[in-house]
Amino acid sequence: MSQRVYITGLGMISAIGNNVPESFLSLSQSKTGIGKINYLSTRYKDEFLAGEIKLSDEALVDLVQDNNSALNRNSYIAMLAAKEAVINSGIDTNDGLRTGVISSTTVAGMSKTELYYKEMFEKDDHLNVLDTHDCGDSTERIADYIGNVDYVTTISTACSSAANAIMLGCRMIKHGQLDRVVVGGVDALSKFTFNGFNTLMILDREWCKPFDENRKGLNLGEGAAFVVIEGENALNLRKGKPLAEVVGYANANDAYHQTASSPEGYGATLAIQQALKMSGLSTSQIDYINMHGTGTPNNDLSESFATKAVFGNQVPKFSSTKSFTGHTLAAAASIEAVISVLSLQHNMIFPNLNFTTPILETGLVPETSLVHTPLNTILSNSFGFGGNCSSLIFKKA
């Protein structure tokens, strides 16, 4: 019989806080972390807003206590969030249970290598940075930081990366390959990212307005979030405490465009439907949806159509929390998983900031102020470039 899978630990660092308690405080006070860029060296410094972590690289080094010159911002914030999740869960990686680390990223070590690229072929003193450039390096750093890990892998599927990482972790537990997994995602800001999204013309120069008729684009953000997931056998063995249960998940692809979702939201619709089918829940049993909600014209309309296709005229309460953190790319789904668990724990729906006018084609209205309401189930959506669409369903433990 397949095991049930529980979330037992949370770790997070982003623009709204350097840990989970700080993040919850910002969310409960409707305090956005999006603002002027202070640490990233980019010519867009005064042109765009971003959800930047309020710590310099030097401050991160002090927190991690590893001053390896080849390490980068991506690795530092990943290590901090993963460690917090492990401590929060109370697991001991020396207890003989099989522990995995599954992380996701798109930026990887780019924030460091892009600084030295022009000098790479002229000087030898920067070549060690190449060792930490690839996506898998930060995952290896997390594993080393935690200690005694039996399995390590990395997923990179754009903005759905962390959701797919969580899915893989759940599947490996259910199939008896691991007992527990430290799973999540990380992406630091980089010049390459800013240049790329600016070229696509989907950055907003003001605060992003998810699901607003006058939305102009997204605010980029950075962050890392990890959750510890455990099979019920391992949880019972150590007499651990579950925070939430992962009851449904699915990945689908509408294969419409390299960067855009299909206008009708076919991939998103399929992902939501399949996650619901796996969970055994009906549409009426979903209490809240943490939408992908980037604030771009394409994404929000596509996701709105998908939501109406699944829920009809009975759309649950919903909001996008990217108006707090910015779009953190590969880390988005794990950050929103942590936020979803906080919502379940505190029976709170965090608001969709900056919203004023519904999208004309759908008329959907998100929650715009903090809502206190009983919550038992939450659907969390994450839709990436290339139409890679993933949905997760969390249930109060």
Can you put this structure into words, describing what you see?
This protein has helices at 20-28, 57-64, 73-89, 110-116, 135-146, 161-174, 191-199, 232-238, 266-279, 297-311, 322-325, 332-346; strands at 5-14, 99-104, 151-155, 180-187, 223-231, 244-253, 288-290, 317-319, 348-349, 371-372, 377-384, 388-396. By secondary structure, the chain is of the alpha/beta class. The strands form 2 sheets. Strands 3-2-4-5-1-6-12-11-7-8 form a 10-stranded mixed β-sheet, sandwiched between helices. Strands 9-10 form a two-stranded antiparallel sheet. Strand 11 and strand 12 form a beta hairpin. Helix 2 (57-64) packs parallel to helix 3, helix 6 (161-174) crosses helix 12 (332-346) and helix 9 crosses helix 10 (297-311). The model has no long low-confidence stretch (mean pLDDT 92).
Number of domains: 2
The helix fraction, in percent, is 25-40%
Largest sheet: 10 strands, mixed
Broad structural category: alpha/beta
Spatial order of strands in the largest sheet: 3-2-4-5-1-6-12-11-7-8
What does this entry show, briefly?
The protein has 397 residues and is α/β, with parallel strands linked by helices. Helices cover 33% and strands 19% of the residues. A hairpin with a 3-residue loop joins strand 11 (377-384) and strand 12.
Identify the notable features of this structure and list them briefly.
397 residues; alpha/beta; Peroxisomal Thiolase, Chain A, domain 1; 2 domains; 10-stranded mixed beta sheet; two-stranded antiparallel ribbon; 12 helices; 12 strands; 19% strand; globular
